[in-house]
């Protein structure tokens, strides 16, 4: 049975895959690792759509549930002026996000904790997430609800999900908590939802 990646201390054997990805003339090299989303030789389709869609609303970004770092590191590469923080509950994810940052000479802050505990009362202009859907509705709902307390006024929560695999539910929860939500981009069954903090 595969180990769940939404865990603090993965116990699965460490296996690595090295690959490169290019977007808008930026090529990054990543090492993905077993026990961390998404163990593959390419960035998963949902994360890639979020990277392609994201446009910053300010100077600070939090990549919530960063995995090995694909979203946050590409955002830093594309917008070097941004201050980017990556966080994950999974200690292996945090270690590999840091390794991937160093591998690509990108200065970001990488911290470990459950949801927002690792960032204290810090606020960000943007929070981006390909949320841990398999961790369950309670975890993703908490991620959305607590985003309100961690965004600057006018800041945005960007969430990517498969619309028919929980995305429509999370879109409604974003509307309930922020009073607004929009489908910024869609590709196949994947949607990028965005809510602004008024």
What does this molecule look like?
By secondary structure, the protein is of the alpha/beta class. The protein has a single domain, classed as Vaccinia Virus protein VP39 (Rossmann fold, 3-Layer(aba) Sandwich). It is built from five helices and nine strands. The chain has helices at 45-53, 70-78, 91-103, 137-147, 163-178; strands spanning 16-23, 26-33, 60-64, 83-88, 109-112, 124-129, 151-162, 182-187, 190-196. The strands form two sheets. A seven-stranded mixed β-sheet has the order 5-4-3-6-7-9-8, with helices on both faces. A two-stranded antiparallel ribbon has the order 1-2. β1 and β2 (26-33) form a beta hairpin. α4 packs parallel to α5 (163-178). It is globular. The protein starts with 15 loop residues before the first strand and ends with a strand. This is S-adenosylmethionine-dependent methyltransferase. InterPro entries: RsmC/RlmG, SAM-dependent_MTases_sf, Small_mtfrase_dom.
């Amino acid at each position: 049975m595969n180990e769940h990646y939404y865990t603090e201390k993965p116990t699965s054997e460490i296996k690595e895959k090295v690959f490169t990805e290019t977007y808008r003339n930026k090529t990054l090299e990543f090492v993905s690792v077993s026990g961390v989303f998404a163990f593959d030789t390419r960035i998963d389709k949902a994360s890639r759509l979020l990277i392609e869609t994201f446009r910053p609303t300010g100077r600070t970004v939090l990549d919530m549930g960063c995995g090995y770092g694909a979203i946050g590191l590409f955002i830093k590469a594309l917008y070097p002026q941004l201050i980017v923080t990556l966080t994950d509950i999974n200690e292996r994810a945090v270690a590999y996000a840091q390794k991937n940052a160093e591998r690509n000479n990108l200065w970001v802050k990488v911290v470990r904790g459950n949801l927002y505990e690792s960032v204290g009362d810090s606020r960000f202009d943007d929070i981006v997430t390909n949320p841990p859907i398999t961790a369950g509705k309670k975890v993703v709902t908490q991620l959305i609800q607590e985003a309100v307390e961690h965004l600057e006024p006018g800041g945005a929560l960007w969430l990517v999900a498969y619309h028919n695999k929980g995305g429509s539910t999370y879109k409604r929860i974003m509307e309930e908590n922020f009073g607004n939500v929009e489908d910024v981009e869609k590709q196949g069954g994947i949607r990028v939802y965005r809510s602004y903090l008024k």
